[in-house]
Amino acid sequence: MAETSEATTPLVRLRDARLQWWGRLLVGAALVGVGVVLVVHLTASVAVLSVLVGIGLMLVAADRAVWSFRSPLPRLERVLAALLLVLAVVSLVWQGTTVPFLAVTLAVASFVVGGTAVVGGLVGTRERRAAAVVLGVAQVLVGLLVLLWPRLSVFLVGLALGGWLVLLGVRDVLAGVGQLVGRGRTRRRDAPRRPRRELLGAVAALVVAALVLGLSAWLRAGDPTLVPDAFYTPPRDVPVEPGSLVRSEPFTHGVRAGQEGWRILYTTTGAHDEPTVASALVLAPADRTGEPLPVLSLAHGTTGVVPGCAPSLLDDPFATGLERTLSTMVDDGWAGVMTDYEGLGTAGPHPYLVGTAEAYDVLDAVRAARALDDLELGDDTVVWGHSQGGGAALWTGIVAPRYAPDVHVLGVAAAAPAADLAALAAGVKNTAAGRVVSAYLAQAWSDVYDLDLTSIVAPGYVPVVRRVADRCLWGRDAVANVLFSTQLSGPVIRPSALEGETGRLLEENSPHGTSAAPVLVGQGEADRLVLPGPQDAFVAQWCATGQAVDYRTYPGLDHVPIVESGSPFVPELVAWTEDRLAGRVATPTCGAGS
Question: Coiled coil: which residue ranges (predicted)?
């Protein structure tokens, strides 16, 4: 016997009669309204979001109750509505609501709604069976996606629920309007097409959910780990004198035509004044006259805190930023030296934002490069640095006369330097990038200073901090780290740590003292990581102690764009550097001689 079409059965006509148009319109309009409020107020507090989530889930429960008249399993739909109502009430009345709780609430709701859709589809009519099952699976995948990132930000929770409510509401409004105006023959004529359209929509939802879930899994897997080879492992016996060349080999990755490159391993001094080793890259013009070359030593920005995050492991370490400008300067007759820092490439720990240790790495790399065969380097050296490297560059100017008087530092230039570390930690503690930096800092200082990580980071954050610290700040690892940081609903470093030993170390590792060499500091006024206000205050305070600083600010430039091609800072930096080599007098904007 042929199966009777759902659109013509008496039972369905009876259900449609009970399903009043006003119920669909009322619930649909309310769903759209609350959904729009959620999307518009994405920065609302957790308390406000909790109320909106509760109201939204109550409306979803009403939606399921209204549509239960068309379901092949109306009792199951009403049980589902009751469960959603319970979740809504809990979200509204529980005083301890948190973002992770709201995220898990959404996941449970997605599982329940999706599972019900799958069961209803399996026992429903043939025309709509596939669409119901596919859409149900898509909703289950959305729940899995939420559980994959259980500590979603307020922004993402509001966006996810708001979008869901708007879609449900539009569906209800359209259905109510269609029933109100009546479609008669048109509905019967379109009946064969409607299941097809529903199936196409369900498949589209499933594809989107599967793609987002797959992308999340891909990001969580991270980039293939770069493993330092045997070059970075020092022999058993190494020279005691810092700045000694341990080994070298040709380096070609990212080296331009007309240039020659080396990878070097050298001795230096660690955070506790202990002998250690680090690696570096050296660039020089391939066509050399034998005359000593001036040296440009670059302290790179944050790349990570584990050995696999060394720039010398990249396919092209000179592709962007000041590294690219360094390569251009080599074309103009300079020799370039770029340390990896201790613990990047070589065995850790990496002294991340430990000022003197990073400065020693910068200076000893220059000393070691002098021992390369067929390369004649002069004493004159200019030091550049960006971000982490900006702070390292400032420290280099301070410690050079004491630690490496044989390295004649003509000038120090720092772009967006991590200078006032306490202000940096406080200023960006609630941003995604700030949490990544805080995680790097917490893990590195736990290792370098032998601090208990649980005493530094907020309760429950240790697993995420370690996961972030194991990844580098490039490629999909960088994106994954930002996403991981959204799982932290508050600052990484606990306030008590900032008031205790960690706070003392932040002050200790902020540049203090004076640099005999001229200092240039460039700061983007739109920088969202190293904030302009604290940087202004740091420079003003440093100048008040007598330090001469040429301080330049750039409207509209963020943290990375200040050192990229097209930034006005870059040509000014090059001109300032050439002036130092030419012996022209620096013109500071504050401090001595201004």
Answer: none
